[in-house]
Amino acid sequence: MERNVTDQEWMYTQNLCLYISWLTSYGDKPQSGIIASELVSKTHEWFKTVQSANDSATAYAEFIGSSPEWVEILWANFFGSGEMYKAFIGLVTEVIPALGHPTQSAHFLPLFIVLTIITTIFFGLRIYSRLSIGGYIRSYDWIILAGFILTLATGIMRAIILMGPVHYRGVWDQSWDDYDALQASSLTNNVCYPIVVFLIKASLLLFYYQLTAWDPLRYATIATFVVVTCNSLALLFAYTFRCIPVLGWHGMAFLTAKCTVDRYKLELSTSIVNIITDIVIWLLPLPMIWKLVQTTTERILGVLTFGVGALACICCGMRFSVMHNSWFHDEVGKPMDSSVVATWTQTELYMAIICSSVPAIRALIIKKAPGVLGFTEADVTSMEKSRDSEDPKEKEATGVDVKRIDSPV
């Protein structure tokens, strides 16, 4: 007969599995690779040979490969006594079989591979466009290259963690080594995320700034850059120092660390700012497009070129949505599926890189194969002559100088 697990039993099981795994992290950690459910089972059998659990801290520490001091502190502060610890061990031994062995969703790795290939192609075309049209790679291309490399590196880390240490979602199916790897990778990814977002947006804003000398657009670009910088720094420092000490799961800090930052409020506030700045960055070049191009077709294509950035806004919103659902799901016995959050985080960053590469690719298509976008050779020649013959007084008034760089519009 299937056993129904209560909310309290679910909470007790997760906490006890973490505590018993933590005990194995002491010193040389001879048993830190053993999963928590096995440690619970072994401890349950060991207590059957002990007359008084309250007087067995030293013997139990030797049995589990820990420190008598750690065992005594854990028992006294979190369970009240050795006998209570023994009772919880017995309870959790009954609960674990009813929880099964849930695993992470399997879609992250194939999606990561596909998005990596697509993003690499888009970025390669972007660089080829710069070299074939302008003759050299711009500073903002190097900035976004750094973002691409960091996104790829963190994506590989996520894949390794999801397939290895946390393939099984339940803490009862994980060892201390698994938990340690998960915490280290989570901290790294949380710190790298705002850095990548900053690099991508800074690259776009630098592109806009160099694209024109029109003061309104430049002032708006600078203001947006300031907001993006502040938001990224807030997320970076908040996640870095969310817990004091920073590596709050190491040693006795596992029991004493103070984590005062509310992750949900942090993600909510910074995600809202991220979405707003995404929209602003999408809208910033539109007034310039209206000044620069004359025909309705060209204007529509120019708007669509920058408008694909809306996809990054959608992905950012989806990332926060799945994080919210993961943190506040209330299904007992079903631990969080980390792969869903990892998937949308990776998708958001890759889509931002892809969208930022579209203008350069459009410029390449117009130069190499204008027919793809409905242009003829005569149209391209006419556009080039029109821009070359632009009235200097009008150029000074509008501030648009597309000959300085390879304009995407």
From TrEMBL:
Main localization, broad class: membrane
Cell compartment(s), UniProt: Membrane
Bias-annotated ranges (Basic and acidic residues): 382-409
Protein's name according to its UniProt entry: Rhodopsin domain-containing protein
Keywords: Membrane, Transmembrane, Transmembrane helix
Transmembrane recorded as keyword: yes
TM segment ranges: 108-128, 140-167, 187-207, 219-241, 272-293, 300-320, 349-365
PANTHER family linked: INTEGRAL MEMBRANE PROTEIN-RELATED, PTH11-LIKE INTEGRAL MEMBRANE PROTEIN (AFU_ORTHOLOGUE AFUA_5G11245)
Family to which this protein belongs: Belongs to the SAT4 family.
Key word Chloroplast present: no
GO CC annotation, single: membrane
Membrane topology: Multi-pass membrane protein
